[in-house]
């Protein structure tokens, strides 16, 4: 078995999975085990497949009766748990749960955490129990987002847990070989008819792990640009895989094709009649396995015979949904299995590594209540609330929650407003689980005449009653729910005024808006905001979002795109994930063009909102944005992101030093030597007379590198110490003249020739440091522009059209005015901060601009400040005694001068007694607003503004945080340890300010440069990121960056130009989703095919009116050639992501009889309905029974 490469390379050996590396209990043992253990045949080749447990059919009835008796006894005696008989209908599901719980990897994790198995309870998003550390027991909980490892070890467990506990009340741990204990209330809740589909999901997940591990082992030594062919190595399938059943008909048709007389004669004529060798149709080619291995393409022979060619064409069509391959024998290959899973056919190592990332991607189970839609849909659908229903619910909600004395839920009492704001999700869950809320849900169901199949609201599912409570809250907030995308009760989340604000600030604004405009109680406003944000802005509910991620930044853009991916099929999933997990989805690369197009549809609304926030595109009241608007937005977005990335990379470069430059030049002079070898080389004075005349304090031999650094390495003076001859005869008497060895000409040339053209190091160092200083100034200017772009809208307007003044702060020099020089003043100037004054619309505001990335708004400073200090006549003691001279004195000022001078965090309420404020350049004069704009409509493009750029350049050039002279001195001479630490901390603080702008797509690894750097047009050698991992990780890390030797980077990052040219660049979702410049297919199709639904699709997607999957379903019938392409991509992505979350993609067929259901229309929708109590109800597709509220006005078809 081998994976074929291009013809210029040898095949990659197939690395088989060894059974001794697999957990022993992942392999099922024969059926001789006891009934309470999982029975079944062991998987072939020792692969870790889970098999569906069997039952003894003749014991099913007895087992069911035994279970019923145990439930009755538990209810009578007050017990919670019952033992499920293994042969009952529920037995196989419980045995599957038991088996997955006791897999070695999960058991190792439990033991590693110190958990006591008997105390464990498994929930949808966590596991709870008691830990025992050194005899001390305490309660503990581990979640899917806490980096504890529970997310990784519980992936295959999640589907069966969801089947057994759909309400997430918690499942007990079931030990291997012990009884199958389950709370008796859950027995009736388990839908055992879904066990087969759950088992298939588990098998799919196991196949993913198997494929990822196998592919990873094959790729370890290979470069990204190497070609691959994964159709050669065969693969095993999980027993749960549907591929064999789906392939049966196509396989039989292929067998008939190769047995046809004309095919048999063709094979004999062409010399391909190899007995026993299988055939396959792979990617449209008919191939046969040769006796020596590999596959021979027979397509050109078959295409010459019309009957055979027609059959091959039909088989090619049949094979497309089977992974684009079918074999004449039960056989499958790795490329086929990847394609069957919707991951395409990777052709290079880089593409295969991306597929491995997809295989390892997992999503948490979606919450039962989804995105809290509250049964309120944009367009009515069966099971949702009708317009009349919404009016009724709003009225009932107003009675309970409105008025002067609202009757709130009991779950809100006993908690402070601050506690609820600190964890709104936990308090919302408590409210929805409370008896008070569930009773209110039942009341609403009764008032709406809701039917759940039995005609009794008391038996309605808990989740339905909770959704009705949510509907009441939302409709009380806004009776016309659902709101427009990005809005909550008239509050626009993505309004320009929110640019640069933190998530918590926006949430507090929303809560105030609900209190002031809707009259909500403050506590209810907190929970109402939580409910509404789940649909309006799900990124605000993602867990563990760093405080530095603000609205309108690239980090926020990526977070929104990640939420769109996570919520693609099951809304609300992103709410169960951390920021790191969500943004990691955006680093995946699409496996086909269809996926890329789908993500562009999701990105249209995001990029339009970003452009409005940043002033790139004017806000449209109707939400309509043209292709030109979107392309302008994409152009500005990528420009900002690329400049931020380049600035970050430049700021990450190590300061050039004498030693690093010396090593760099010596490596050129001695190309066959490594850095370590150079540093070990020593030289000795070649002349005996020079050695005799050298002072005793001077060494006779030196390091080659240090000799070059001191400027002493000149030709003719030195020789390698190893080339210095040794005296053969010792000196006999003190008076005898010392014999000096003669150095040969060859020995002198071995050193002289390489060093003859070494450049003078001082000039080289000065040039390098000057360039480094300019690069840092440019990076500082970019950072300042990014900081200014996050100012409040009024201040951004003032920055663009108001009067702007820049000031520096310094202390008194301590000399007279006559003695003061620029050097004296510069020595006292604070360079870590600049004071900026904005005056606009008769208002003055100051900003303290610090190099570490903080901007502090000050409104407590005087409208005008005294500049250049005050010159006073003071008595000064001079050489001739006391005399009166002019001395420049500072004034008292409410600033923390230490923060300006050292970059420390500013302290509040600090009064500096003597500060001199000096202007930094000329004033930026006020100017008029652009034409046709008012203060209410003017949103400046602050980052792209020339004026902002001039202000940033003024600060970075005129008050840079480190003078050029100090930087040159630091490059020439090593600093003391304490000063090196201070410099490192300043660099770290400076870099942290970039992180929200460079995004998760740009990876930096310690000692290496990640994939994100390859797209930057900068010299990346020298980047030193000590925190490791993604650049975004620096937000969460308080670790200072550590030095990274240049040699390590040079040796590890040496891609040749030919290699880079041949490797095809792969764009992540973060790149291609927003690239509407190079990838403009959507706009082109809309222009060329105005009648096929594309223009309507783009309009709806840009407005964010409907989720992309719903858009595709709704518009699919209108499309022409593009419809099958995108619908197929959507279906494959939907299936793959559902399985990633442990969910099956299939749905159960309705069971209602056609004689009972009546087809008709309601609210413009085709509906299957049934009459109950003289009212029409839509049909629940699962139960086939009446469901939802009455359909007043339903029109049955004749």
Q: How would you describe what is shown here?
A:
The chain is of the alpha+beta class and 1198 residues long. Among the domains are: 19-103 and 156-210, no CATH class; 238-331, no CATH class; 364-536, no CATH class; 658-728 and 740-759, no CATH class; 764-972, no CATH class; 979-1066, no CATH class; 1158-1196, no CATH class. A hairpin with a 2-residue loop joins strand 19 (829-840) and strand 20 (843-850). Helix 2 packs antiparallel against helix 5 (157-164) and helix 21 packs across helix 22 (579-586). Residues 25-50, 223-243 are annotated as: Disordered.
Describe this structure in a few short sentences.
The chain is α+β, with helices and mostly antiparallel strands.
